[in-house]
Amino acid sequence: MEQQQPERREGRSFPERKGQKRKLEEGAAAAAEDREISASTTTDGGGDAILNEIAAQVSVLNSAFSWQESDRAAAKRATQVLAELAKNEDLVNVIVDGGAVPALMTHLQAPPYSEGDLAQKPFEHEVEKGSAFALGLLAIKPEYQKLIVDKGALPHLVNLLKRSKDGSTSRAVNSVIRRAADAITNLAHENSSIKTRVRLEGGIPPLVDLLEFSDSKVQRAAAGALRTLAFKNDDNKNQIVECSALPKLILMLGSEDAAIHYEAVGVIGNLVHSSPNIKKEVLSAGALQPVIGLLSSCCPESQREAALLLGQFASTDSDCKVHIVQRGAVRPLIEMLQSPDVQLKEMSAFALGRLAQDSHNQAGIAHSGGLGPLLKLLDSRNGSLQHNAAFALYGLADNEDNVSDFIRVGGIQKLQDGEFIVQATKDCVSKTLKRLEEKIHGRVLRHLLYLMRISEKSIQRRVALALAHLCSPEDQRTIFIDENGIFISSCLLTGLDLLLGLPGSTNTKQQLDGAAALYKLANKSMALSPVDAAPPSPTQRVYLGEQYVNSATLSDVTFLVEGRRFYAHRICLLASSDAFRAMFDGGYREKDARDIEIPNIKWEVFELMMRFIYTGSVDITIEISQDLLRAADQYLLEGLKRLCEYTIAQDITLENIGGMYDLSEAFHAMSLRQACILFILEHFDKLSTMHGQNQLVQRTIPEIREYFCRALTKSTTNLQGLRL
């Protein structure tokens, strides 16, 4: 069975913008200036004022490309105003239409330096930073990614990544590098062609180098860009690995800065995704233990990524599955199952599902407390989370040591009663129940019988309910007989009485569970000990055949039915039932009579009864079945009686079940009564809410007990006098 892997995305968490883009932060020093700019760009003039503002700033950028201090100051402010406006996505189209992209593009590089310029470069790096920031914000809209790249942004952004090569590490340098990395992230987001173009422009090596940069924000921005570039792009993945990124990323996993280890584990996850060879390199480089360590991080985003990555590590490599468990991943993963964060629960369930496919891990996960939280997740209305939990439970069900725990925590009822969203989950649950059913034998069965004897009442009930559903028909006897062949009456009383007591409980859930279990058990017991077969005739049956039905040929007795003559033959009647034998061989007046009057039976009913006597078969309709049942009972025709009961049973409904049960009692119709009992158990939920039918349910409980005692003990009558 395949497990659906949670979708890995290019970037998650920390973003606040639509589309899961990276959060583009402003430094503390720029915050006050931003507030001033924001105030100045929030005009009361509406759309025209904004259009005018955009046009003015674009004009400044187009005319202020020089090292003169006034031009640099004006250009810096223009990039900041446009960036502030671009934070409102509703204005992005207006900004682009206003010609901002080519104007900003110009300022991604320093202006040319001439002899007349001052030796000191005013606002060095500041204008380029503002341009990169504004373009990154405009790239949040996918339709503008290609436009910006086609205008030539990538070579300039890659050059900005190298601004620290001259040894400068000022705050301005750090900021421009970070803005360039963020802009690359947004330009390449979910755009495979731009990811490739970044590689072709030489963007990957400087980004890898920046993973060791002294400024943590730059490290994070570089990792974020690599994470995007690695997503579903094999050539980019290979180049990132070839540039020796793995050792640097693994060191970042141990950072105390949550944002850094979040990005690092995200890059590794995207590198590993669908790349078995890179996965091997990552494990060989020593990533496993740091990733496991992130499961206990205070950052839920890193926890999610770590759990997803462990699931990827455990996809096919059995040794890796064992190593992950040995290194302490199970308990934190189980704790994550109980988090209020849905994604965190989904990723941990995914990882545990992968780990649970290894036989060495299954018992450990269950005994570490994994069963309860996984079962609880089946109640989720999130289809992916529900399926991952179901898949993990499917793995755990493969171990005999877990069967009792499944039953003890109510897992069987949970699996049976769950409302599952997708078909794949329904199929998975069905296979899990099948796995558990196949293990109800040998030492597992003996342990369950032990629990049914010594546990508290609630556990006893769960065991009894589970055994009713899961035990095979052949093992029903074993459930109540020990390995030495001695009948355990206490077990019979414990298990059967527990089930029989549930329909009469005041707890609605227990009533429904008990009825469902008894219905299942009844169906299984019929396979072993059917109680509705017609008893053999006391004498050899003689069928004269269809041609003699109501035929005067060789007739030696005539019945008068509703004033009409029906010709019959004593030899056939004598062989058919004790009633006719008594009539013709006993001391009744009919013994020597030529004509015998039959009162209280309709002609068509009598004719069908005689046709059965002569041929051994008859077609019975619903309309005549009850009258024919009365006649068959009166004349002790058990075979015909069973046929009538079968026909009547096909017509049982919620509305007539009471009358049908009364009919079965009136004519001692055991087969019909059994059908009524099964119908009551099958439709217990509806009957228990119908007016007047609850009394019927309670009335049938003694008969239900009698039926099960017959069915379950029939094969052990020779042992009933023995005790353990």
From TrEMBL:
Regions of compositional bias (Basic and acidic residues) in chain numbering: 1-37
Keywords assigned by UniProt, alphabetized: Repeat
PROSITE patterns the UniProt entry points to: ARM_REPEAT, BTB
One family name in Pfam for this protein: BTB
Residue ranges, annotated region (Disordered): 1-46
Domain BTB: 555-622
Repeat region (ARM), residues: 152-202, 202-237, 244-286, 328-370, 369-411
The organism's place on the tree of life at top rank: Eukaryota
SUPFAM superfamilies linked: ARM repeat (SSF48371), POZ domain (SSF54695)
UniProt-listed CDD domains: BACK_ARIA_like (cd18504), BTB_POZ_ARIA_plant (cd18352)
Entries under InterPro entries matching the protein: ABAP1/ARIA, ARM-like, ARM-type_fold, Armadillo, BTB/POZ_dom, SKP1/BTB/POZ_sf
GO biological process: one example: protein ubiquitination
Gene3D superfamilies reported for this sequence: Leucine-rich Repeat Variant, Potassium Channel Kv1.1, Chain A
Pathway the protein contributes to: Protein modification; protein ubiquitination
Name this protein carries in UniProt: BTB domain-containing protein
Originating species: Brassica campestris
